[in-house]
Design goal:
By secondary structure, this protein is mainly beta. It has two helices and twelve strands. The two termini are about 60 Å apart.
Length: about 220
């Protein structure tokens, strides 16, 4: 609504014409549909708000620029109506235009639906004996937990592979547990097989032990 009004005013700026008498604002626009209205009344030009309070006035054809400029400055963000008529503009009028963009309504985000699948993780690694000496036979153990939203399938091997410093050539594994694990439950499995047997022989020095659950992707 603002842009057509301002464009109409801009056209009026081009011409300096004699003022003519106009009707009172109540006969021009409906009360409350504007913030400020400017109109001529016989020999007077008047700017008043929607309640009828005069903001500025002067001699028509002489004070048109001053009264219209005052009307524009009286509205920070609203509607100024320039009533139909002839206005003599002796100086340019500065008009501030504000066309705020509409804030888009955010798209509601949906709550993720649980996958309904098991999710196995290793929560602990241990061995026997707990403090081995060089040459001792070591048996590996791992605790695995189902942190998913569905139980693991019964009858499927819940395998765990153990490696030392990433050496697959000496890996040992557990492949005997086939019972279902409920969501949030955990169990401990023991190595029962391997590339060169189900156990390791302790050697001097340090190494990094890794346990990988469902190492051959039996469980989705």
């Amino acid at each position: 609504m603002k842009k057509p009004l301002f464009l109409a005013l801009a056209l009026c700026l081009v011409f300096a014409m004699a003022a003519s008498a106009q009707a009172a604002p109540s006969q021009i626009v409906s009360e409350g549909t504007y913030d400020v209205v400017v109109y001529t009344d016989d020999t007077e030009i008047i700017a008043e708000d929607s309640t009828g309070q005069v903001i500025s006035s002067g001699t028509a054809g002489t004070d048109d620029s001053k009264v219209i400029q005052t009307a524009m400055k009286a509205v920070e963000d609203g509607i100024v109506v320039i009533a139909a008529g002839n206005y003599a503009l002796s100086s340019s009028i500065e008009i501030g235009v504000s066309n705020p963009t509409t804030t888009p309504t955010p798209t509601p985000t949906s709550t993720p639906v649980p996958s309904g699948k098991p999710d196995l993780v290793v929560t602990d690694i241990s061995w026997e004996p707990a403090n081995p000496a060089t040459g001792d036979t070591i048996t590996m153990k791992a605790t695995i937990k189902n942190q998913g939203t569905a139980a693991t399938p019964a009858g499927t091997i819940h395998g765990v592979a153990f490696t030392s410093d990433g050496n697959l050539g000496s890996a040992v594994w557990s492949d005997t547990y086939t019972a279902s694990i409920a969501p949030g439950a955990w169990i401990t499995v023991t190595a029962n097989g391997g590339v060169s047997g189900a156990t390791w022989t302790a050697a001097a020095g340090t190494c990094t032990i890794t346990a990988t659950v469902d190492d051959v992707d039996r469980i989705e």
